[in-house]
Amino acid sequence: MSKKLIHFIDITKSYGDNVVLDKLNLYVRENEFITLLGPSGCGKTTTLRLLGGFETPDAGQIVFDGKDITSLPPNERNLNTVFQKYALFPHMSIAENIAFGLKIKKKSKAYIDDKINYALRLVNLDGFGSRAVDSLSGGQQQRIAIARAIVNEPKVLLLDEPLGALDLKLRQDMQYELIRLKNELGITFVYVTHDQEEALTMSDTIVVMNQGYIQQIGTPEMIYNEPVNAFVADFIGDSNIIHGTMICDKTVEILGTKIPCVDEGFGTNKPVDVVIRPEDVEITAPEDGFMAGTITSVIFKGVHYELEILANGYEWLVHTTKFYTVGTHVGIQVIPFNIQIMNKPESEDEEAVEIDA
């Protein structure tokens, strides 16, 4: 396992009476692509800005490669930031934009020229050096912003919603570009987004945040398949989240119906949240499901149909490749393994993860 490169220790940050981060603890490992994911105001961009040196914490410590950098200015940290607004200099050529940081460091012309050519090849814009900024598309400008950052050979690249201004196709193309760059460069990426698809596509590790707290840390597969609470389940993809009662080990009651599950250790007759993904709901004949209902909506999504099924007073979201008509009476079935049981949090912003020290 790669070493721990960055360590946030009990980081607290407030703006006036608004506590944005409350004793945040987080590790980032070397060569990791880690994504801070959450809704607006959850603290993810503040965390990135604290790491970049653009903000100072009220309390706590940031350790980078064994050194306390909490009070260091941005230019003394071995990292670079790429923002959503590319911040390219319009009066400079592409090559001059890329070379800006290197000239400040007083590198030789031969060194700078070599780095410009290398960076342009890396972002698939070879030969674009003499062009003007305003002659490029949004996706190309974003690549130049990334090229400008990587020529400085940072240990860490910080990216603050860098694809937010691009259209869907460009955004998807750039996701694959960033994965390729991370693999080729061998540097650590710390990425901020509110887009679940981006996080699931690119990350080695996802940190789900809400109201200044870390809710869950894990691989994309773990976050999607094993959410620790209803907030994570609801934020990462579509979910049916239903109030339930854990009757006993391997039996849960939802919507007045007892169904088998695989979970144990929740106690007897305990209130829980039950999460069932839309793709895990099987449509059966009415008599073959654990409950029956009526299809109230059918929407074609390209790779599947998205259905709403009203059953036992709950509007179920279901994904299926088979077409059904509105009004059809059907049954609902889910295999026990695909039923996720979670403890109900004591409060809305309860921190739901223990940080591995």
Layout of SSEs?
Layout: E1 4-15, E2 18-29, E3 33-37, H1 44-52, E4 59-64, E5 67-68, E6 79-83, H2 94-104, H3 109-122, H4 138-150, E7 156-160, H5 168-185, E8 188-193, H6 196-202, E9 205-210, E10 213-218, H7 220-225, H8 230-235, E11 240-248, E12 251-254, E13 257-260, E14 270-276, E15 282-284, E16 291-300, E17 305-311, E18 314-320, E19 329-333, E20 340-343
Parallel strand pairs: 3-8, 3-9, 6-7, 7-8
Antiparallel strand pairs: 1-2, 1-4, 4-5, 9-10, 11-12, 11-14, 12-13, 14-20, 15-19, 16-17, 16-19, 17-18
Helix pairs in contact: 2-3, 2-4, 3-4
TL;DR of this structure?
The protein is an alpha+beta fold.
Task: Explain what the structure shows.
The chain folds into two domains: 4-225, P-loop containing nucleotide triphosphate hydrolases (Rossmann fold); 238-343, OB fold (Dihydrolipoamide Acetyltransferase, E2P). 24% of the residues lie in helices and 35% in strands. It has eight helices and 20 strands. A six-stranded mixed beta sheet has the order 6-7-8-3-9-10, sandwiched between helices. Strand 17 (305-311) and strand 18 (314-320) form a beta hairpin. The longest helix has 18 residues, at 168-185. The protein is elongated, with a radius of gyration of 24 Å. The two termini are 14 Å apart. Mean pLDDT is 89; it is low at 348-357.
